[in-house]
């Protein structure tokens, strides 16, 4: 299949308030969001939807749809992210969570890992007092107070470096983030990977809280309540890398099978929580225990949390993750129980 995807950067530039604009022409913001992240492949979208987006952006279909362009995946070493919602270098990642779900821990871990890989890390200080950001600051190279300062830092730093920029949703709502990203596009600064967070926790109630995204990390209240960290929802988190044939076929197959298992496991959990495991038929009971093992495996100890958890941080290469998940999918009986998979790295 030909690699085709929406030109997310162009949409951000041309239609800053995409939620209202989409509604004005009869498009559901959720549909636009899913097209941007690749949850709905462009090739399966209705023609009228793509045409309406092109008209909103004031561009041609050829400008709106990117064909055959390569996408470079940033391997984070975090199992659930690399498997279900990988990051594209130079893309925009949106974190959707309510306070207490662990989004700042995931962000701090990402900054720690990327800085270790040589990325220059920048945080645009959100307006107001936010003491919860204290733990994030230790892996930030530059803290700026506005868009202008951020531009100057990127302009004066050594050309050719990779950057990670973090900003609160307030900068998206004000339109300042679109101005900055437009400046990046104009200057050809395609090596800036952006993380957008929502410190107020309001984004969970909106279909398109940040505008078009390349990657969406949806946090899960149930996982957080059961201390299954990182509490990233494997069903609703997604990435444009999953669209078309950007993803390795083996990765894509394992990712699809894992999602299918976890989706059914979540349905069965509702029954087990009320009636107990004995009420499930034997075949469904096997699916439940298999899903329980996969969910446990997707937990992971973080470097930034070592002082709190007493567990050494783990980095798991993508190929190890794929191999381990395939083992759980194909031969779950080789693993005695889910408990031994909680907060490990790879399966030994």
TrEMBL record:
Residue ranges of every copy of the ATP synthase A/B type C-terminal domain listed in the record: 247-320
Xref: Pfam families: ATP-synt_VA_C
Compartment(s) of residence: Membrane
Classification via InterPro entries: ATP-synt_VA_C, ATPase_a/bsu_AS, ATPase_alpha/beta_chains, ATPase_F1/V1_b/a_C, P-loop_NTPase
UniProt keywords, alphabetically: ATP synthesis, ATP-binding, CF(1), Ion transport, Membrane, Nucleotide-binding, Translocase, Transport
Family named by the database record: Belongs to the ATPase alpha/beta chains family.
Keyword Transit peptide recorded: no
Membrane-spanning ranges: none
Name by which UniProt lists this protein: ATP synthase A/B type C-terminal domain-containing protein
């Amino acid at each position: 299949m030909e690699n085709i995807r929406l030109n997310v950067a162009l949409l951000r530039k041309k239609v800053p308030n995409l939620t209202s604009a989409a509604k004005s022409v009869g498009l559901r913001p959720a549909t636009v969001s899913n097209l941007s992240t690749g949850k709905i492949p462009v090739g399966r979208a209705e023609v009228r939807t793509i045409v309406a987006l092109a008209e909103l952006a004031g561009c041609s279909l050829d400008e709106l749809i990117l064909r055959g362009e390569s996408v470079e995946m940033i391997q984070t070493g975090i199992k659930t992210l690399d498997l279900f919602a990988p990051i594209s270098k130079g893309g925009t990642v949106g974190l959707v969570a309510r306070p207490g779900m662990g989004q700042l821990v995931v962000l701090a871990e990402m900054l720690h890992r990327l800085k270790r890989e040589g990325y220059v890390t920048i945080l645009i200080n959100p307006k107001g007092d936010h003491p919860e950001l204290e733990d994030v600051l230790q892996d930030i190279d530059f803290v700026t107070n506005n868009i202008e300062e951020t531009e100057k830092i990127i302009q004066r730093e050594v050309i050719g470096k990779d950057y990670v920029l973090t900003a609160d949703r307030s900068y998206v709502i004000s339109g300042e983030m679109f101005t900055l990203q437009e400046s990046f596009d104009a200057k050809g600064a395609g090596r800036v990977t952006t993380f957008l967070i929502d410190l107020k926790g309001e984004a969970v109630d909106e279909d398109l809280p940040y505008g078009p995204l390349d990657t969406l990390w949806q946090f899960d209240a149930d996982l957080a309540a059961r201390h299954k960290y990182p509490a990233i929802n494997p069903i609703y988190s997604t990435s444009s890398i999953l669209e078309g044939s950007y993803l390795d076929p083996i990765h894509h197959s394992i990712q699809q099978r894992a999602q299918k298992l976890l989706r059914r496991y979540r349905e069965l959990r509702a029954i087990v929580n009320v009636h107990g495991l004995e009420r499930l038929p034997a075949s469904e009971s096997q699916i439940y225990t298999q899903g329980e093992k996969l969910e446990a495996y997707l937990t992971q100890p973080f470097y930034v949390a070592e002082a709190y958890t007493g567990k050494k941080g783990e980095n798991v290469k993508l190929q190890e993750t794929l191999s381990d998940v395939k083992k759980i999918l194909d031969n779950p009986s080789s693993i005695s129980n889910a408990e031994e998979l909680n907060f490990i790295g790879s399966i030994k």
